[in-house]
Structures are given as structure tokens and as C-alpha cells.
Amino acid sequence: MARLSAKTVNGRLNILVFYLSSSTEFQKINPDLSLQLLEYDKRFEQYGSEFTFYDYNQPLELPSTMQHGYKIVVADPPYLSEECLEKVAQTVSFLMQPEESHLLLLTGEVQRERAAKLLGLSPCGFRPQHSSKLGNEFRLFTNYDPGLRLGGWEQQLGVLN
Q1: What CATH number has the domain bearing residue 146?
Q2: Which residues pair with 12 in a beta bridge?
Q3: 118 contacts 147 by C-beta, under 8 angstroms
Q4: Are 74 and 17 in contact (CB under 8 A)?
Q5: Residue 33's domain spans which residues?
Q6: How far is the C-alpha of 132 from the C-alpha of 39, rounded, in Å?
Q7: Which Gene Ontology terms of cellular component type are present (predicted)?
Q8: Chain segment 81-101, per-residue pLDDT in tens
Q9: pTM listed for this prediction
């Protein structure tokens, strides 16, 4: 369910998305935006230069031009394992600009403590829904206070962690 993230370069908005759930989702994103998708599934190669092959097992094997190039990153890791999130965290650190960057992580509730420990993330009130009946509850975590957007952070809503 990953959406998009943005980077402004020379007045143009560039987008970084990795681990998007389907090519249909990618097609729905605003065509006026310049997109960059990091994905393992090579079916996304149909998007040409907007596609970068990404294998979470090789978290830093990305073009050097991407290093610290994004102010906003949206990540949707493929697995709910500790190992997967640790490697995705390495990739996120590689991609994000060092100061005032925003991270949105879509993953299972079971990753709550790891997301906080590895990336300094808090859960939002917004809960992603899947069209298929997945057995795991999914959540959205951010490293910034979304205010009233995305349902705010849970503690703002009075929900106990």
C-alpha cells in the first residue's frame, strides 16, 4: 500500500517509492510527478528510468546518486521479520537526507518495537486496509508528528501502546 515520497530538485518534484504492492498502485500515482520506484519485482521495469531494482538482502546496492537524496521516503518492506526491517532501515538511512527528513513505514503491528528502536518511529491512528484477507494487522509508522493527518500519533489519541 505504499504511496509516494518527494524530493525537490531544481524546482521539480521527484518521488521515491519502494516496495509498492502492485503495478496498478504505481499507475495511480499522479502522472505529473517524477517517480522513482525501488522494487524487487522486475515486472516494474516497464516504467523504465523510474524503476530501480532493489533487493533488501543487499540494502546498500543502489546508485550512489540516490545517497541522502530524499527528504521523504515511504517504505513497505516485503516481510515482517527482524532481519528484513534491519536491512530496510539501512536502505532508509542511505536514502534519506540527514536533516528534517520524513519517513513513512507501512508494516505489521508486530514490528512496532523494532520500528521505534531502529528508526525512531511512532504508530499513527491510520490503519492500512488490504483487499486480501491478510492475517496480520498492518500499521503506518512515521518519524514525524503528522498532526491530524493520518490519524495523528496514537498517544495523541489517548490510545495505550
Answers
A1: 3.40.50.150
A2: 9
A3: no
A4: yes
A5: 6-157
A6: 21
A7: cytoplasm
A8: 999 999 999 999 999 888 888
A9: 0.77
